[in-house]
Structure formats: structure tokens, C-alpha cells
Amino acid sequence: MAPMRAIFTADRLWDGSQLIELPIVIAEDGLVVSIASGKEAAVPKGQLHAFPGLTLGPAFFDIHIHGSAGHDVMEATPEALLAIGKFLASRGVGAYLATTVTAPLDATLRSLEGLAKLIEKVPEKAQTQNASWPIGIHLEGPFLSHAKRGVHPPDLLLTPQIDTFDKMFEAAEGRIRLLTLAPELPGAAEFAAYATQKGVRVSVGHSNATAAETRATLAAGATSATHTFNAMRALDHREPGILGVVLTTDSLFAELICDGIHTAPELVRLWWKAKGPERAILITDAMSATGMPDGEYMLGGFAVQVAGGKATVNGVLAGSVLTLDRALRNFVEFTGAPVENGLRLLGTNPAAMTGFTGKAGSIAVGQPANLVVVDAAGKLVQPIHSGVLI
Questions:
Q1: Helix-strand-coil split of the chain, %, nearest 5
Q2: Residue from 285, 294, 325, 375 carrying the catalytic annotation
Q3: Does the N terminus or the C terminus of the chain have fewer Cβ atoms within 10 A?
């Protein structure tokens, strides 16, 4: 039987490192087998999907997401991840980091064990039903500040302890790729250095840290910042704190929830000017209510009220119901940046920060044909998963 072949053309392609005019992308059996420019090559015969006037890019990579479609990643079941993955793929997401929330240690360990097994062996259903799948784990909590914990339960927060981390890392079979840490906690710098040696990327956040405390954790290996502005010490002209360091450290990546609720458009522009196209990362921090009607939903082990696009617990924001395709549109609208810059923020940069370049955030021969088609305003026109329009 001849291999299933699909051909995709558009005005432009952002492949993760460069713009290609009049691209011709050929996929067979779900993998990219050829990338060329129509300036130098003719469109071959086959099932052609032409997108004139539009831009092709890598499928999105969400490194901070708790759930969607009525399910939380901490359920750690094939059914939950399949429902989440089908919804995410329909919104242009090709891969993600399953993000935990602060919970009792035994519950966290159970979730990590379940997630590790599912990441190791992707169920056939996910492959046949066009569902995106986690490629790693983001541990958000329990090593967070009480002062800036958000909705994370205060009685379950922990100070950084290497033996506790080792239990988590072992339960996750080494699949923890990102960890959020408050720099002011006792032993945070030493903890960051240890986690970094294990291949985990440390992200500073949920923190009331001073500038000096933050710099010490960066020196120990921290590489990113968790949802910049949110759950961070406010900027002060004499004590710039964690936020001042995040915005002025050129080497540091920085996440942002670009929903117009967590961060005002003016601050999105400030963040963009500070971090630029190589260090800015767009995330959702989405919870199980994403893609669902208003109502009450679970985030980890606690109930969240969702109404009018806001997810709250007693008036405090609790994650979001944002999708990355909407984040891209908002980013382009708020900043006026070209759409290919937005594609960097949703794929190329998160992949570079986490070390998953080659698995996400790029289009290359031999990789899964997970693509998005977007217009100049950042609107998602067509998600493509494993070479199939969805």
C-alpha cells in the first residue's frame, strides 16, 4: 500500500528558525518528509491543501497547562488525557507539559506515577483520534511562597527539600522537565542547583522574593519565570524584587498569560519590549473548565468557579480558561508584532527553554507533521495533527 501523503502550501512558513516563502511541506504517514520553497520547486502531485495568503507554523507547545475539556491532568488516566489532548489538538496544540498543582504529597506522587507511564507509552487511541499528548511534566507547587501562593492550599506548601524532590522525580520516572520555585524559600538556591543537575528547568514564580534572592536562584541555574506579573512581588523603584529581575535579565525566559484578564495589554507590551522574540513564552495556565460552559470545576483537589472567562476561588484568579490560539490573537492585537513572532512564543521558545527542540516548536524532516495555519492577525485557521486536518 502506498504511504498516505499530504501536501501543504501557503504564502509563508515559520519552521522554528526561519521564514520560508511559498513553502511546500510534504507529509507521509504523519511525518514531514520534505520542505521546499515554491520559488525553487514545483508542487508535486498528491492530496493538496493550499492556504493562500496565510502562514504555516509549528503546532503550539503549552508548557503550563493543568487541564481542559472537563478534566485535570492530575487525574492521570488515559481517558482524561485523551479528552484533554483532543481538545488541545483542535486548538492547535501539538504537545504540552502536564502541569500539577499543590496537593497532598501522596496524591502528587500517585499523579506523577500515572503521568509517567502514560508519557512513556502513548495509547493508540491518542494516535488515531488526533489527540496531542504530554511530553513532560511541569511541577507547579508545592515549593511556593505563602505570600504569593494564589489559590495553592497554604497547608500543603513545602520548603524545598531534596529528599522530597527525589521522591517526586522517581515517581515521575525522570519526566519532570520544569519546576516552579519561590527564590526566597530557605535553601532555594541549593535546591535549584540540584534540580538543574537532574535536567529539570527551574522557573521562578509564586514569589515575594527580593531582587537579591531572585538573582541568587538564577545564578544557581533557574532559566525561566512563571506567569510573569501574576503571583509576583509588585515592582518598586527601590526594591525591584523578582519582577524587576525577570524583566531586566536578558538571558531569562519568561511566561505570560495573554488573556487580557491576568495581565493588561499595556503590561503585555512592557513584557514584550523587555523579553523580546527569543525569551518571551506564551502559556495558558488553563484548567479543566477550558472549553466548557460556566460552572464549578476542579483544579487539582479544590473547586473553582468559572464565569465570564474568569476562573476564581473566593475572588482570587485560579488558572485560566485561555487557549493558545486565543493567546496568539491577543498577543498580535496587544503588541502589533508580526504573527511569526507570536509563533516563536508558542512553540520555538518554550521548546528551546525546556530542551525539547526537535520534539516540539519546529517543523523538520522526520518530525511529526503537527502544524498550524494562521492569518496575519494570529487567528487559527486550521490545525493539522500528524498530517491530518482537524
A1: 30, 30, 40
A2: 285
A3: N
Do both 130 and 156 map to the same domain? yes
Residue 172 domain flag: yes
Q: Are residues 332 and 189 in the same domain?
A: yes
Handedness of CA 117, 103, 216, 348 (dihedral sign): positive
Residue with the three cell numbers 484568579 = 317
Count the Cβ atoms, other than its own, within 10 Å of residue 77.
14
| Short-list 329, 380, 373, CA closest to 54 | 373
Alpha carbons within 13 A on the beta-carbon side of 17: 7
Shared domain for 186 and 304, answered yes or no, is: yes
**Residue 285 annotated to the active site:** yes
Q: Give the CATH number for residue 263.
A: 3.20.20.140
The answer, yes or no, to whether residue 2 has pLDDT greater than 50, is: no
Q: Are residues 383 and 235 in the same domain?
A: no
- Cα 182 to Cα 58, 174, 177, 185, 365: the distances in Å are 32, 22, 17, 6, 40
| Tens of pLDDT, residues 184-197 | 999 999 999 999 99
Average pLDDT estimate for 322-338: 98
List pLDDT tens digits, range 342-387: 999 999 999 999 999 999 999 999 999 999 999 999 999 999 999 9
The verdict on 326 and 354 lying in the same domain is: yes
The 10 Å Cβ neighbour count of residue 371 is: 27
pLDDT band at 3 (very low <50, low <70, confident <90, very high): low
> Does residue 25 sit in the same domain as residue 118?
no
Residues 114 and 121: their CA atoms lie apart, in Å, by 11
pLDDT at residue 260, as a whole number: 96
Q: Which residue is associated with the grid cell 479544590?
A: 302
CB count, 10 Å around CB of 51?
A: 19
Beta-strand pair 23-28/31-37:
antiparallel
Look at residues 340, 353, 232 and name the one whose alpha carbon lies nearest to residue 283: 353
Instruction: Print the SS3 string covering 245-294.
Output: HHHHCCCCCEEEECCCCCCCHHHHHHHHHHHHHHHEEEECCECCCCCCCC
DSSP assignment string, 9-29: EEEEEE-SS-EEESEEEEEET
DSSP label of 240: -
Q: Is the pLDDT of residue 24 over 80?
A: yes
The CATH number of the domain where 27 resides is what? 2.30.40.10
Phi, psi angles (nearest 5°) of residue 31: -115, 150
